[in-house]
């Protein structure tokens, strides 16, 4: 009750409508206290809106990045801990890739490959109707070289011929083959689309 009386006495005889900021030093203590309180609250609200709120938003943004950063850290920590194993694995892959490249014929070796296929067929007892290169086709980092083959012979001779091509030191794959009987001689006619591959140096 005494506090309320003191507050009322501080404002007694003062008209709040006649406030003059030029004579603020002569204001009653109560008016000054209220004015200072309003200024402090206003500054606090403005500081929160223009500074603290922005910092809070930035903090929330940084906190939201935490799971992703943890995943990146775990991934990099795994890579570092397995660095030597990865180096050995890369060396093995490069060695394997080098060995595979050696099995791909160069431009100058393709005619020799055709001669090898012809020799395998003749040694198997087959007669060649066609053996020719089709237009090459670029695929990824290598060039595909189709070879059209048509031969005649017995079933076992055809099987021996295909096995002989599979045993070539150069990579040769067999696709789209068809076998038809030849009624006059009892032999079989086989058409094969064989493919060999050349490394594309340009890519």
What would you say this structure looks like, in words?
The chain is α+β, with helices and mostly antiparallel strands and 203 residues long. It has three domains: 2-60, no CATH class; 67-101; 104-199, Alpha-Beta Plaits (2-Layer Sandwich), CATH 3.30.70.60. It has helices at 2-11, 29-64, 66-81, 83-102, 110-123, 155-166, and strands at 127-133, 137-139, 142-153, 172-181, 188-199. Strands 1, 2, 3, 4 and 5 form a five-stranded antiparallel sheet that branches.
Helix content: 40-55%
What's the mean pLDDT score?
Answer: 78
Number of helices: 6
Q: Identify low-pLDDT runs.
A: none
The count of DSSP E runs of length 2 or more, i.e. the number of strands, is 5
CATH topology of the largest domain: Alpha-Beta Plaits
Radius of gyration, CA atoms, in whole angstroms: 45 Å
Share in β-strands: 15-25%
Give the ordered list of helices and strands.
HHHHHEEEHEE
How many angstroms separate the termini?
A: 94 Å
Query: What is the domain tally?
Result: 3
CATH homologous group name of the largest domain: Ribosomal protein S6/Translation elongation factor EF1B
User: What is the general shape?
Assistant: rod-shaped
Give the name of the CATH architecture of the largest domain.
2-Layer Sandwich
CATH hierarchy, class of the largest domain: Alpha Beta
- Strand-pairing-aware structural class: alpha+beta
Major β-sheet profile: 5 strands, antiparallel
């Amino acid at each position: 009750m005494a506090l309320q009386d003191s507050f009322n006495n501080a404002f007694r005889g003062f008209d709040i409508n006649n406030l003059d900021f030029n004579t603020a030093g002569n204001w009653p203590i109560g008016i000054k206290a209220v004015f200072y309180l309003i200024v402090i609250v206003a500054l606090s609200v403005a500081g929160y809106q223009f500074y603290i709120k922005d910092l809070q938003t930035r903090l929330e943004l940084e906190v939201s990045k935490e799971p992703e950063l943890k995943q990146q850290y775990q991934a990099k920590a795994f890579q570092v801990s397995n660095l030597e194993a990865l180096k050995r694995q890369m060396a093995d892959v490069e060695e394997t890739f080098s060995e595979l490249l050696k099995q791909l014929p160069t431009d100058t070796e393709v005619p020799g490959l055709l001669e090898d296929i012809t020799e395998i067929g003749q040694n198997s007892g087959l007669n060649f109707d066609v053996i020719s290169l089709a237009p090459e086709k670029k695929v990824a980092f290598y060039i595909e070289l189709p070879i059209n083959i048509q031969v005649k012979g017995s079933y076992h001779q055809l099987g021996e011929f295909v096995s002989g091509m599979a045993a070539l030191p150069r990579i040769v794959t067999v696709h789209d083959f068809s076998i038809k009987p030849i009624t006059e001689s009892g032999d079989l006619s086989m058409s094969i689309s064989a493919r060999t591959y050349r490394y594309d140096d340009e890519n």
